[in-house]
Amino acid sequence: MQITVAALIVRFMERLGISHIYGMPGSHILPVYDHLFDSSIASILVKHEQGAAFMAGGHARASGGIGACITTAGPGATNLVTGIANAYADKLPILIVTGETSTFIFGKGGLQESSGEGGSIDQAALFGSITRYHRIVERTDYLLQVLRQATQVLLSANPGPVLLSLPYNVQKELVDASLLDEIRFGKATHAAGSHATASETMARMIRAARHPVIVAGYGCLLSGAQVALRQLGIPVATTLKGKGVVDEDTPLALGCLGVTSDGAARRYLIEYADLLIVLGASFNERTSYLWDRQLTAGRRIAQVDRDPAQLGRVFQPDVAVCGDILAVVRAVHEALANANMPKKALPAAEPAPPTATADASSDDAAFTLVRAFFSQLAARFSRDTMVFDDNIVFAQSYYAVSGRNHYFPNTGVSSLGYALPAAIGARCFAPDSPTFAILGDGGFQMCATEMMTAVNYGIPLNVVVINNGTLSLIRKNQFQHYGERYIDCDFVNPDFALLAQSFGARHFRVAELTDLDALFAHADLERGLNLIEILLDKHVFPRYLSTR
């Protein structure tokens, strides 16, 4: 049976298991939109294409599947760039479908043309460094190969964004519907390689160590290794993305590594650890404290990661294993059990809190409201809660994540304005999970209009805005390094109560602890749309180890 390319692309997305697609129509992509009308895929109209990319990323992070976004040519595509760059850095499987001018006018200056011909914008070049695969589909005779390669990337162990740009005339061309039957849509299954030797070696390293420490990253969550990890009985420090691998209110949890953390995990590692077991964690600038050699010097290191490019990238491990983290952890646990090795005792004395390197104006008392908010959030919403966080500084130290909830910090390229649209995309996938988007007031103003997307589709959401009228990290740097010469960091906020009213959302202003108690006692935080404003003094800065 002959169908149009536009119809085939929609069927292709259905075969991939895509349930929602986020975007904004334009004339160059309307044939695909027309076939979405009768599709099982729910189309979500955003207020800005950047929001579509963030929503697709949030959907992918919450679902563990493929996110999708769709735009027209030219500005529709270019507006996606930051959100797609974020997804690329986080290795998220995102299918991007964009329109393009008809091939027969390439190079002639077509409206919104981005073919790269005749001096026009080159969309392929624009997305080349932030996608794992990209193609302008100019003909149908190689469409099968294009869709096969796109599928391979999206379903691989190390996925990333895929861009398919479809010229208007190509969308209307006819192809055989059976073409999709020649594509394998299941995830590739590989014969599990034996890690017996490496696991035995790691087990011997653990037996020989006095104080082994696991550094657990996002790879542990992706592999589902949480339970197996806890069974090892070894203290765990997590990366920011790895929060929740172990319940953070248990003795095994050392806290979060990172330049914006309070430094307790780093201190423990330096003072006690003689073996580091690095599982699915990248020693990037944030995690490594600007590649502080104290973290690895004089210690034996075992590293496990599903991405071979991560092995030995920053430090040289004594043992490096490329493979599934869950399988390796289980094999290590079995080797330890066979040797009847008792669990390692924790040090008798906990390390003292690190000396703050922040300025003298830092004062924990100033953050009582923020700390209390995260404390109540953890206590009252301990199961199936999703938290998307732009403002990671506070959550990194104040939010005790359990294995029963889901924390999705702003990582990737660390773009402000991520949390709100990402939370919308996640809630579309998990409609019964209470969802919080936490932003600073600067980041909120970058994406505030996406609250109307939540309104338009009846998506419950709690938008938490830290209101201090400044770009805090910029002000902090200008305080520390530039003689308090404050420029372009302070601003005036709108009246959040009136703004919430205009959106049709409820507003809650938290100026003292009693306001916080009332919020959690009376607000519908599971099914309502709420704008929650937490007041903060702009002249105080959180304490963390980085001086940058």
Write a brief caption for the model.
The protein has 548 residues and is of the alpha/beta class. It is 35% helix and 18% strand.
Mean pLDDT over the residues: 90
Give me the count of strands.
20
Shape: globular
Output the CATH topology of the largest domain: Rossmann fold
Q: In total, how many domains does the architecture comprise?
A: 3
CATH C-level label of the largest domain? Alpha Beta
CATH superfamily of the largest domain: Thiamin diphosphate (ThDP)-binding fold, Pyr/PP domains
Explain what you see.
Helix 13 (285-288) links the parallel strand 12 (275-279) and strand 13 (300-305). Mean pLDDT is 90; it is low at 189-193 and 349-362. This protein folds into 3 domains: 2-182, Rossmann fold, CATH 3.40.50; 196-338, 3-Layer(aba) Sandwich (Rossmann fold); 364-535, 3-Layer(aba) Sandwich (Rossmann fold). It contains 22 helices and 20 strands.
Supply database-style keywords:
548 residues, 18% strand, Rossmann fold, 35% helix, alpha/beta, six-stranded parallel β-sheet, globular
How do the helices and strands line up, and which of them pair or pack?
Blueprint: E1 2-4, H1 5-15, E2 20-23, H2 30-36, E3 42-45, H3 49-63, E4 67-71, H4 75-78, H5 81-89, E5 94-100, H6 123-128, E6 133-136, H7 143-154, E7 162-167, H8 168-171, E8 174-176, H9 196-208, E9 212-216, H10 218-223, H11 226-231, E10 236-238, E11 253-256, H12 264-272, E12 275-279, H13 285-288, E13 300-305, E14 319-322, H14 325-338, H15 368-380, E15 386-389, H16 392-398, E16 406-409, H17 419-429, E17 435-440, H18 441-447, H19 451-456, E18 461-467, H20 472-481, H21 496-503, E19 506-510, H22 513-522, E20 529-535
Parallel strand pairs: 2-3, 2-4, 4-5, 5-7, 6-7, 9-10, 9-12, 10-11, 12-13, 13-14, 15-16, 15-17, 17-18, 18-20, 19-20
Antiparallel strand pairs: 1-8
Helix pairs in contact: 1-2, 3-5, 3-17, 9-14
